[in-house]
Design brief:
By secondary structure, the chain is an alpha+beta fold. It has a single domain, classed as 2,3-Dihydroxybiphenyl 1,2-Dioxygenase, domain 1 (Roll), CATH 3.10.180.10. The strands form 3 sheets. It has a 9-stranded mixed beta sheet. Strands 2-3-4-1-5-8-7-6 form an 8-stranded mixed beta sheet, with helices on one face. Strands 12-18 form a two-stranded antiparallel ribbon. 40% of the residues are buried.
Length: 308
């Protein structure tokens, strides 16, 4: 078994690349590359791009890219599935193995290729708390505008079979269960948050989640921003631009992220987040009933739109 190190990108389909690009710029991404049929958008970190939109219909999430720790891992996965490792034809280059998950999503396993020079952004704001004063003789003056998206954090997948999808992502890519949700009885598990199985190394609470929800595709993709102010400033910017808000600002329970959800112009749910949990393979999973009260420690009331 291999263990992927992180998620590289999410892949969507949409009928209008210009309209998607305008939204993603307002969301806080930057243009990375463009072809006649595909748009590549980057964050401020070292990945050459984190969001791909391919021209076409119907609009929806179509796949994701995962980072292998070595080319030998690519070879292991390829051999397990009777495939071959190929040169990656997309702008990042490097080597790639492409598989299809049990729900029809494209999953690219990647190694090598281009990296990007990180973009200049402001530093996280120091906060004064009742017990720790970190900001002395300094004002807080963050600028208005889009959030500063630093990286892609995770994707939540709507799957037909929780158990089949869990087996696929854990056995093939080495993901480990972080926490789970059940519906009805406790033995009816329908959702799992999965972290990269990196042993003692700390990683995001979840890089992928699989949830047995009708519809298939992505429930949402989620992008990490600098800090709480960056979430709130991005919220204000997107609202002023007239984009559709979905839910937030709030703090999740599983993963603890401060979150804010929006809809892109084609109805895809997309999240800004900050201040998430970091765990390793020693983490002990929790098991909770899936209901609205289990999704947030604090937040505005959840609208029916969010669950669609």
């Amino acid at each position: 078994m291999i263990a992927v190190s992180d998620i590289a990108y999410v892949r969507y389909r949409a009928p209008d690349l210009e309209r998607m690009e305008r939204f993603l710029l307002d969301f806080g991404l930057r243009a990375a590359a463009r072809t006649a049929s595909a748009l590549y958008m980057r964050a401020a970190g070292a990945e050459p791009y984190v969001h791909i939109t391919e021209l076409g219909e119907p609009p929806h999430g179509t796949g994701l890219g995962l980072l292998a720790q070595s080319e030998a891992d690519l070879e292991r996965v390829a051999a397990q599935l009777g495939l071959s490792v190929q040169d990656n034809p997309e702008p990042r280059g490097g080597r790639i193995v492409t598989v299809t998950d049990p729900n029809g999503l494209r999953v690219d396993l990647l190694h090598g290729g281009l990296s990007a020079a990180p973009l200049a952004t402001r530093k996280p704001l120091p906060l004064n708390t009742i017990s720790e004063h970190r900001r002395l003789a300094q004002r807080q003056r963050p600028e208005a505008g889009p959030s500063h998206v630093m990286r892609l954090g995770h994707v939540v997948l709507k799957v037909r079979s929780y158990r089949e999808s869990l087996e696929f992502y854990t056995s093939l890519f080495g993901f480990r269960i972080s926490d789970t949700y059940y519906a009805g009885s406790k033995d009816n598990t329908i959702m799992a948050f999965l972290h990269c199985g990196l042993g003692g190394r700390y990683t995001d609470h979840h890089t992928i989640a699989v949830a047995e929800i009708p519809g298939g595709g992505f429930e949402h993709s989620a992008f990490e921003v600098i800090d709480w102010d960056d979430v709130a400033i991005g919220h204000q910017h997107l609202a002023a631009k007239g984009y559709k808000h979905s839910w937030g600002i709030g703090r999740h329970i599983q993963g603890s992220q401060v979150f804010d959800y929006w809809r892109d112009p084609f109805g895809n749910k997309i999240e800004h987040w900050t201040d998430g949990d970091l765990i390793n393979d020693e983490y002990v999973p929790e098991h909770h009933r899936l209901e609205p009260s289990a999704l947030a420690q604090w937040a505005p009331p959840m609208s029916p739109e969010f669950m669609s």
